[in-house]
Batch of 2 targets.
Target 1
Amino acid sequence: MTRLNSYRELEHLRQRLLEQRQTITTTVMVCGGTGCRTSNSQAVIDAVREELTSQGLDGSVRLCVTGCHGFCEQGPVVIIEPGNIFYCHVTPEDAFEIVYQTVMKGEVIERLLYEDPVSGERFKTEGEIPFYKAQERRILSRNRLVDPCSIEDYIAAGGYSALPIVLNGMTPQNIVNEIKASGLRGRGGGGFPTGRKWAECMETPGDEKYVICNADEGDPGAYMDRCVLEGNPHLVLEGMMVGARAVGASKGYIYVRNEYPLAVKNSRIAVEQARELGLLGNNILGTSFSFDVEIARGGGAFVCGESTALMASIEGKVGEPRPKDVHTVVDGLYHQPTTLNNVETWANVPAIILNGSSWFASEGTKGSKGTKILSLTGRVKNTGLVEVAMGTSIREVVFDIGGGSANGNKIRAVQTGGPSGGCLPLDKFDLAVDFDVLAEAGSMIGSGGMVVMDEETCMVDVAKYFLTFLQDESCGKCLPCRVGIDRMLEIITDITEGRGRMEQLDLLEELGDTISQTALCGLGRTAPNPVLSTLRYFRPEYEAHIKEKRCPAGVCKALITYRIDPDKCTGCGVCLRSCVHGAITGQKKEVHVIDTQLCQKCGVCRSECKFDAVQVV
Amino acid sequence: MPLQALDQILEGRRSQPNQLIEVLQDVQKSYGYIPREAIESVSKGLGVPLIEVYRVASFYKAFKLKPSGKHVLTMCAGTACHVRGSGLLLDHAVSQLGVKPGEVTPDGLFSIEHVNCLGACALGPIIAENGSYHHHVTPAKLRKLIETLRSQEVEDAHYDQAQQLPRTGTPAPAAP
């Protein structure tokens, strides 16, 4: 590819690409996101490609391997244009039919359409499916337009249009004003106003300023940043270019988890391609603006999601946070002014420049503008990535989009914000997805994890889970976090193992308050939230563990026993053969029995039994 | 340990202490873990004190100071997987294989890794076997996965014996 030396050359390239594509009559988009790849979409991609070649359609039909479409539960997902036909759970064996019937004849294959589990109705297009209907997919919808490894796709789809605008006519102050006016707040967890951050960095003098994209998505249960970076890396890069122009940075880093190999690969390819076209490097598009980006791979430490720890890690050091008396916009990476935003924040930027701040602010609430991508997971029917306007209620997300319970159990809570967030009970489901509203209720949006819990989820166990996670991930630098979390975990372990005492609940709250007020970094200060929020909303469940030595959800191992329901057991012997501990006895076709002395409560027999005869009491 | 790969990894990065994590990532990728010799060479190559290289290598979860088994079962411990019962899976793997996370079975065939999130939360519980993802895993599915891998190994061993070929999977050396 030849280097572009002016805005005009970029526009010419765009026109040329669009003309070339006029000969394409049909596009087959197969999701190559991590979710669909887990469901074997690579085999579907190969099969479709082979089928197109054998039918001699390579020239007129375009096969586009895209990033995530969001509806991961239904993967592998295939979309065919024209017609916007949406197929789900596609297998390699379906490739022939898809090419022969849909691509060549324009006929819809009914069996591959999404079927509503309640009404049985089948929907032809994405927009008709309830999961997508209530969403406002400003960022995620762009994943389907591009092959993430093709800068041509991004340019043809209107990408890199914000860059000429900021280089040609907008002063850094104008850019910052526009971002400020949009009301964009950081999508990584803190919710700090992006424009204010940029303004401070812009105003601080420095030898070499930096912009950083935080793609170290450490929040367990959230994966939206990975899907945006994997699916549309140029969008993130363009956002960083705008930011660099505004604050005066000449160097940028994408700090990405090494556990996300596809995100590492796609962002590296994107950087190379942008360099080749001269969109990164010296004198971008013939202007005086020079900016380059490097990929830094994270080492798998949760604390590196904290900005100062992340910067230490880019410098090749141990990722420990430092006090932020002086902000990183003044004293950041290599002690230079640094602007750090997360993937989703950067991805929002180009559209704000293109469409204006008022367009961005047209969605959302008073304090939270735009949309938010949520990772809807756990015990809900439609799991996947969901993008909704800020202000949408939790109820709409869980029941309208998520389709409610996955297995008929009663949904009772949602955990938002990961290890820094909290659990909200069903009667709080009318609360809006909004930075301030959720914080007031004792939780937070965080990076957008939304884990749904039902009556088989033990809230004390969830609190213990987060404490175990945080104890393991605490970097150990400050005492409140290092020792405080340890003590809280000790108490919670006592409770889940039947040794709890009522006065320990007050102690838990006291410890939590102390850590919140005294820990060094944001992650430490928010660490007690999962415990404090479950204590606030699910206290009776703690009390059942302590007073009755009972785990109502049937999760805490020390307080439950496995038994076989004699009315349901058919004596098939599957459980007996599956038990590695030799705890099950019984004759063929007779009721089997579990020896509670030998039983390790591993759950194998329960998941093997086809008659639902193994019960937890 | 062949040090050729290490020279390649250090190429163009010598005397640049800020490249430490990137270099260790590549060492880990080439060798499957960070051997002691590599720590020493990296220290000299980048001009970072030995203790600092060790500190970084032992701080980050991504780096392993011991070799892994032939089949690495990476168990996702993310929240979404947890509420769908991933805790039971870990317990099961530990009891079926007889090793804890981070350890290798005596025959060098299996090791268990327990990681915070594999990032395919919608399809949990997730287990990766040498990087390939298995979704909606139940204790029963895991039991079968381990049994299948084991019986494959036995078959391979018989085949290799019949063909008088050397074994493909070399057992990991005992931990120092």
Target 2
Amino acid sequence: MNDIFSGKLVRLSAFDPEEMSKAFSRWSRNSEYFRLANSSSRPMQSPKQASKWMEEEVGEMSPASYFFTIRTLADDKLIGELNLDVVDWSGRDAFVGLGIGETEYWSKGYGTDVMNILLRFAFTEINLRRVTLTVFEYNPRAIRSYEKAGFQHEGRLRQVLNKEGKRWDMLYMGILREEWLERHTQGAVTGAG
Amino acid sequence: MKDIFRGDLVRITNEEPDAYAKANVRWQLDSEYGRLLDSESVRMFSEKAIKEWSEKNFQNSKPERHQFTVRTLAEDKLIGFFGLYVELVHSEAWVGIGIGERDFWSKGYGTDVMNVCLRYAFLELGVQRVSLGLHEYNPRALRSYEKAGFVLEGRTRKDVLREGKRTDTFWMGILREEWLQKNGETL
Amino acid sequence: MFDIQTQLFEGEHIRFGPIDHEKDAEIESKWTHDSDFMRMMEIAPARPLSVALVKKQYEKLEKELDENKNQFYFTIRAREDDRLIGKASVQWIEWANGNGFLRLGIGEAENRGKGYGTQAFRMLLRFAFAELNLFRVSAIVPEYNVAAIALLKKFGFVQEVCRRKSLERDGRRWDLYVFGLLRDEWQYSHAGDLQQAEA
């Protein structure tokens, strides 16, 4: 059995609502992060408000929902969070949401590394058949990162977003189990012990 | 697409906590039925308690639990139930089935219910395997489940004590590929 | 044989203890970040837990222990400094039938291979048979948990069931084994253990 929580640059760690509500508040003050993370205009939540719903959701430990924080391997710094939500068990499809709040870690391969760890978790621990995500048209950095991780473009909701006086599309991307296994065959089967 | 809710002798439904409670409160008076069904010590519940439990569990709103009542096609008589509990991540379903009406024992009804149940599990829920446990002292069920395609995978020794005697629990399983092959499905 | 004066909870290098809500949560939170350990211990998907969530789990566990009375839980602690090194429990007890299921884990890799697991397991077995008076105990292990299988066989457990392809990990399906040990079998092998324990 391998360590499925670690990649090349980061590792997945526990999601602590108290720590995360403070981090979200800090990151959300950066409007660029805020606009990339949220599709509708939303008032910033106080750490206390955010903490409460997070505690409930994370504490439930449902087999359909997984929350992680992202920490650098180099200095164990908290740089972001991600979650996986199973939509439907007969289709075995899940939505992934990922955000790197610390902007100095953008465009350096951290996003791709996280996504690789997440996909390995999705396909070899939760045994899903596909993973889906949505990404805003005005987030080319993330789109590139997801393409590098193996996601295919599957469609778009046209002109559904309204920012800076312009309308933008919401893109749907997806990756299938077979596609991922093919890219990572040596990681897929580890044998006993 | 076939009607997955119909077998040869029975059909399955899940909208009736009331009817189920009325029947169940009667079935539990037959201690042999209870002892064949479970390894937990047999006990009795009020109709009210069973109805409350049924209302919660027959909703089938949670992906891990699927509970059905069984009615005969001929007389539309409520004769039993089955339940599937699914380990979602590993795609394994545990099945429990009971024919509460004694008159319908040893007449192929149990096998028919199991066939409907397996078809539902494999073709509707899409599971990879179905598992069950049964008592050593229930040879009728063993025969029925073997006919449905279950493989005997072992026995936990002397884990039930009743009437001063210790008996084993048999454990059986059927894999998706085995069921598909047996039923000539090409899915 | 043992009598009531021989300690149930003391081993050579380890001892059984209660949950320490303050100190243990941090250590156990670290274990949950070790996917290797979690995949050996649990069938449920591995997921890292925060210290706060581990504390909540302890509270939930103690409530269950109190209400259901079909489970007994111990922490495994190092004798030298009382730090948490593992956990052991007897659960799913059916009193009328005299059965229970055993679970045991040593959290950190550096604490394994030192005989702590063997000591703890011996104590757990004695507790199950000589204090809870169970007639038989079972253990469920995935086929890839080679160390656990070796430990069970060392204590005379018999592999009774092979639940074929019951769990999926790393892109393939694995068998789950059910092992069982009867009290008679334990008593027979116990004489040898007694000498070892006293040494």
